[in-house]
Amino acid sequence: MAPLAGIFALQGAAPEGDRSARARLVIALLAVLLVAVAAFSVATGASDASLRGVAAAWFGGEEGVLSARDRLIIYEIRLPRVVLGMLIGAALAVSGALMQGLFRNPLADPGIVGVSAGAGLGAITVIVLGGTALGPFVALFGIYALPLAAFAGGLATTLLLYRVATRRGQTSIATMLLAGIALAALSGALSGILVYVADDGQLRDLTFWGLGSLGGATWSKIWAAGPVILAAFIAVPFLARGLDALALGEASARHLGIPVQRMKNVAILSVAAATGAAVAVSGGIGFVGIVVPHLLRLVIGPGHRHLLPASALLGASLLLLADAVSRTIVAPAELPIGIVTAVFGAPFFLWVLLRRRGILDL
Amino acid sequence: MIEARNVSVSIGRSRILSGVDFCARPGEVTAIVGPNGSGKSTLVKALSGDLPYAGTIAFNGRDLAAMRPSEAAVVRAVLPQATTLAFPYTVREVVRLGLMGGRSGALAGQEEMLPERALARVDLSGFAGRFYQELSGGEQQRVQLARALCQVWAPVLEGRPRYLILDEPVSSLDIKHQILVMQIARGFAARGGGVVAVLHDLNLTAAFADHVFVMRRGAVAAGGAPQAVMQDALLSAVFDCPLKVGAVPAASVPFVLPQAGLA
């Protein structure tokens, strides 16, 4: 309760209607939460390798506190999984917040409007055709071939969606959602054709990939997806101001001095890169992009300067928590994390719709 | 000065504006009046840089087409007809958006106080913490005016006049706030800035404008001081409706009544 009291105390001190002090406090708390959740995730698992052992090995200076087996479990299994989870969670949440700002619409989410499906199509294309038709592409880009293909698929979908749903700077929410359904169906159908021609080995790869899991996390996956996600994040600070201005509409954003077309291009590229990379390494993990920014807007408001970094932090924490649930709820087996996020996220989405039914009339 | 020469705008195949010459001087309130569909808003959108146009538009001698958005944002602020927001911003957060270019022209250290001062000016003191989406249309319109005022707080910056472009600024306001907004426009002009306002109310126009452009079918039908332009025959023809212009003797300010109501 102490942090909550702090929030309200600060609220009294700040000028009326200014939520930036509260937002900074929330961001600090979210950072602490993420560290705690990450430490918890590294410390827990099927094996009894503990955080205390890790801490002792890091800070105690004594060699050999960690057994070789524990060292392997922590550094090669749990740590990559936690790092990947944080990257993916942050990428999905930031993609959602960016898309919502870009479309001026709190219901836009890469999973709901077909961007993830498009990225998935790109990834499946590389998995199935990587040995044959796309051999040179895979040979050229190596471990980056999969995230790059997913990025291309996500980019194509986002551009198409924007084209269809936006006219003279106004986005029709109904058109966007319906176009998203069509694009997801098309990507799904094309993916289905590829699955149909896939051989047994590829099918196994596809199945593992498509369930949406952090289970296969390795450092090489992090090296493949991480740079693409971080590249998208680098653009984020430059987008915050423009997205706030865009909330007034495209013309008003331009009147305020924002180069709107360039800003939209950067936002679309960032969404496609972050979503593409996330989908490439972890399959379909839905709803993070809609739940996280929505919750945060309730607390710190919609200003993107704070919403975007806060989304990254909360997205990372929530995905690690979802991963913890997926690892423990049917232990010793694992539930795909995409199922966990959908079980919580889909009802949340319905709740948002219920509260703001009028939004579809915009 | 804002100077438009031979400006034409086409949307699709239809020509909305043809060969419009227009100017708005600093120190003056310039009104644009005319019937629905006469091209008032299109002219204002062209001046704001929202529409592709043929011809030339210049602000203080600089070609609008050659200005980057950030440069245009220094020289003018625009109030659109209505603004809806998709997210729950507070009134203060909306007004602060006017400061994002960093060229309000307020004295150093005073910028943080501008949102409150701008809100006070539009008679919305105490509204800073309210949610924009929960306000009435007229209140939202005044919040947007406060935002525009923040953007060009100093009507003259580095010796160059700045402009307020207002598209139907009073259409959703009650009479008290109509007068308030027109007084804000007059005050901005009195301190050296220029104001362009699309207006429907001919009597407000007569009372507050220095210069009136009357538009009809995408062209300028007449331009000049209110006393010169607001004549029975001209207005009746432009608005296609019998009108009677009188004058309040003291200031010889014209007023316009429908003839139908006088019978």
Automatic annotation (TrEMBL), chain A:
It holds the Pfam family FecCD. It is found in: Cell membrane. The keyword Transmembrane applies. Its main location: membrane. The chain crosses the membrane at residues 25-43, 79-99, 111-130, 137-161, 173-198, 219-240, 266-295, 335-354. It comes from the Bacteria. Keywords: Cell membrane, Membrane, Transmembrane, Transmembrane helix, Transport. It is a multi-pass membrane protein. The keyword Iron-sulfur does not apply. Gene3D superfamilies: ABC transporter involved in vitamin B12 uptake, BtuC (1.10.3470.10). Belongs to the binding-protein-dependent transport system permease family. FecCD subfamily. This is FecCD family ABC transporter permease. It comes from Chelativorans intermedius.
From TrEMBL, chain B:
It comes from the Bacteria. Keywords: ATP-binding, Nucleotide-binding, Translocase, Transport. Pfam families: ABC_tran. InterPro entries: AAA+_ATPase, ABC_transporter-like_ATP-bd, ABC_transporter-like_CS, P-loop_NTPase. The keyword Repeat does not apply. The keyword Flavoprotein does not apply. Residues 2-242 form the ABC transporter domain. Transmembrane segments: none annotated. GO terms for molecular function: ATP binding. Part of the ABC transporter complex HmuTUV involved in hemin import. Responsible for energy coupling to the transport system. Belongs to the ABC transporter superfamily. This is Heme ABC transporter ATP-binding protein. It comes from Chelativorans intermedius.
